Amino acid sequence: MLSRSPWVRYTVLQLSLAHSPTEATHVWYFGDIERARVNLAIKAYSWRTYSSKIIQKHEMGNWHVDVLGPEGELLKTLQFKIII
């Protein structure tokens, strides 16, 4: 029997050589639909931070997180798939 509880997914960001203070953004997508946007403060030259997203049972499938820099520029895309 499957649990009806949602799952939590974390995306970790580690920056080095960042001009501090600054910020980054994690944009969470289920397929091509934006599901969350999280602004992250970068407060030091070398910094680690994260965001999380609760994944509901009906949100199985392809996801990706775009990591954006302080000017909204795309730094990296992290792709993953939620399966049972």
Give me the strand/helix succession: EEEEEE
Which spans of ≥5 residues are poorly predicted at pLDDT below 50?
Answer: none
The name CATH uses for the topology is Immunoglobulin-like
Tell me the count of domains. Answer: 1
Which range does the strand content fall in?
over 45%
Mean pLDDT: 83
Structural classification: mainly beta
How would you describe this structure in keywords?
mainly beta; Immunoglobulin-like; four-stranded antiparallel beta sheet; two-stranded antiparallel ribbon; 0% helix
Structure summarized in a few sentences:
By secondary structure, this protein is mostly beta strands. It has one domain: Immunoglobulin-like (Sandwich), CATH 2.60.40.
Descriptive account of the structure:
Helix content is 0%, strand content 64%. It is an all-beta fold and 84 residues long. It has one domain (10-82): Immunoglobulin-like (Sandwich). The strands form 2 sheets. It has a 4-stranded antiparallel beta sheet, with no helix packed on it. The model has no long low-confidence stretch (mean pLDDT 83).
Helix and strand layout, with pairings?
Elements: E1 7-15, E2 22-30, E3 33-42, E4 47-55, E5 61-68, E6 74-82
Antiparallel strand pairs: 1-4, 2-3, 2-5, 5-6
